[in-house]
Amino acid sequence: MADDSRTHTVGPVVAVLTAVLSMQCGAAFAATLFDRAGALGTVTLRLLFAAVILCAFTRPRPWTWTPEQWRAVVTLGASLALMNTAFYGALTRLPLAATVTIEFLGPLGLAAILSRRMRDALWVVLALGGVVLLGVGDGAGLSTGPDPLGVAFALVAASGWAWYIVAGSRVATTLPGSAGLAGATTIAAVVVLPFGAATAGTELLRPDLVLAGLAVALLSSAIPYTLEIRALRDLPKKVFAILIALEPAAAALAGALVLGQVVEPLALAGIALVVVAGAGALQHSRA
């Protein structure tokens, strides 16, 4: 029975880890578009193309959804709009590794709240210590310390990430396949479209940006969100939240390879503390 349980868990775990790598590579690539489309224009391209891709593959039938299913989809769409907009806002002011590490406080804090045990609260404290190390000196490429507005955006993204986990779990259990995700992504795209169009204008129609936006949508939305929603059907929310503890490490790798953002030893120590906090909480999780 134990072996069957492990086999049943391997698939969702691999799906989440694949989503982590895809998400951070997409985020790093998206940052290269800011000088042409801006943060709001880039997130608009990402969500629009992700919505088109997901709807094409899943063919959702929203006219058949119950009011409860609609509420779940709309809630998930709002969380996606908030999380992505705030994340890209932070990424214009902070390195990728620092942004993701601060943002990770959202799912880790959610895991501690769901656990309601002092031991898991201590893991959150350890993660906070890791975040503090990111702001010391130039450990994460922050020559004058972290930008306050960038940190604020990252914290808003953290709350959006926690909200996404809760809302995504509800959608995964109320709608079959990825139809709910397609609907939620479409709602998120509609929400951000006026802001992206107002800031980027006709730049969003440039062929090179259209192709780049399609790549970002695949890497940052369509692939990871689909994998995560499927994993949430078999993984408790707390376990899922902790499995993505490798997000900061993946962000540091993607930032170095794609953006040339070198992470110094002090920042690496901070990231390691956050990852250890996540791994420790998972190891002692009873969920």
Structure report:
- By secondary structure, this protein is mostly helical.
- 80% of the residues lie in helices and 0% in strands.
- The protein has helices at 2-31, 34-58, 67-91, 96-103, 105-115, 118-134, 148-174, 179-200, 207-232, 237-243, 247-259, 265-283.
- Helix 11 packs antiparallel against helix 12 (265-283).
- The radius of gyration is 18 Å and the shape is globular.
What coarse outline follows from CA principal-axis ratios? Answer: globular
Number of helices: 12
Largest sheet: none
Compute the gyration radius: what is it?
18 Å
Report helical residue fraction. Answer: over 70%
Question: Which features does this protein show?
Answer:
12 helices, 80% helix, globular, mainly alpha, 287 residues, 0% strand
Short description:
With 287 residues, this protein is mainly α. It contains twelve helices and no strands.
Write the layout of secondary structure elements.
Blueprint: H1 2-31, H2 34-58, H3 67-91, H4 96-103, H5 105-115, H6 118-134, H7 148-174, H8 179-200, H9 207-232, H10 237-243, H11 247-259, H12 265-283
Helix pairs in contact: 1-9, 1-11, 2-3, 2-8, 2-9, 3-7, 3-8, 4-7, 4-11, 5-6, 5-7, 5-10, 6-12, 7-9, 10-12, 11-12
